Amino acid sequence: MTEPILEVTGLTKEFPIGGGFGRRKETLVAVDDVSFSVLPGEVLGLVGESGSGKSTTARCVMRLIEPTRGTVRFAGEDLLALRGPRMRRVRRGMQMVFQDPYSSLDPRMKVEDIIAEGMVIHHVRSGAAARRARVRELLELVGLRPDHLTRRPANFSGGERQRIGIARALALDPRLLICDEPVASLDVSIQAQILNLFKDLQQELGLSIVYIAHDLATVRHLCDRIAVMRDGRIQEIGDRDQIYGAPRSEYTKELIEAVPIPDPIRQREKQERGAALRRAAKAGPPAEVPTPAVAKAARP
């Protein structure tokens, strides 16, 4: 049996809130006992509304923030037990693509320096010539041109900036990408291009991906399995066909119902059908009507 490349067990993150001036200190549980695994070459979608704990889960997995408790194992290593050089070595194998391509790139740096920064920090491909050659390869891989090397982020569109962010994440040859809503701030037409790019990269490089999204519309094309989160907990997890075809959780059913359909006529029919079902559910089961024989017998 293939061992998971990423295994998360009982992950919990609590944030202190309130307190001070005699008030009692309280705790916000942002991630509550979350467990999942990702196999080599698999794409797992982590889906839920804003505030459901998806991004906090991703940051705990990457140790950008420290979880309150739980375990995170990557390629057999207990990430939460690692420190110093060993932690840096293991983390080379897992990289993150952030949501906002406008704030995740340093506006003062040239594209070449942005993409090569990780190679410099981790002493990969020593020498400026080797690093520049690798940056050129990465630019071509994500659909950008070599003459973009000397430009700065302000010269690019949102979709192009996100491609730069993806190239930066790939610079250290990771085995796992964690993508935190990477198309949420892009136009719909650009979203499709970036999703196709992720799919091509996954197939070409054999990457494992945790793909975070706030709805089910963007994950069906890309993900092998889907975990649905709400209020910091996983409501259900299953393969793509099961989640879309036979969801067990009422919350998952609501998310699927909320996915828009490009055809306006079908979308209106879907909305009307959903409204009718909600009215029926609110009204409860219909009252039992007696048959004529029972009604006659019931007369005084």
Q: Low-confidence runs (pLDDT<50, min 5 residues)? A: 287-300
Gyration radius from CA atoms, angstroms: 24 Å
In N-to-C order, the SSE pattern is: EEEHEEHEHHHEHEEEHHHH
DSSP summary, beta strand count = 10
- Helicity range: 25-40%
Instruction: Quote the CATH topology of the largest domain.
Output: Rossmann fold
CATH class call of the largest domain: Alpha Beta
| Tally of separate helices | 10
Biased composition (Basic and acidic residues): 265-275
Protein name: ABC transporter ATP-binding protein
GO biological process, one term: transmembrane transport
Organism: Phytohabitans flavus
What does this 3D model show about the protein?
This protein has 300 residues and is of the alpha/beta class. The chain has two domains: 1-93 and 177-187 and 200-283, Rossmann fold; 107-173, no CATH class. 38% of the residues lie in helices and 24% in strands. The protein has ten helices and ten strands. It has helices spanning 54-62, 84-91, 111-121, 128-141, 158-170, 188-205, 240-245, 250-258, 264-283, 292-297, and strands at residues 6-20, 23-38, 43-47, 69-74, 77-78, 94-97, 176-180, 208-213, 225-230, 233-239. The chain has a six-stranded mixed β-sheet, with helices on both faces. Strands 2-1-4-5 form a four-stranded antiparallel β-sheet.
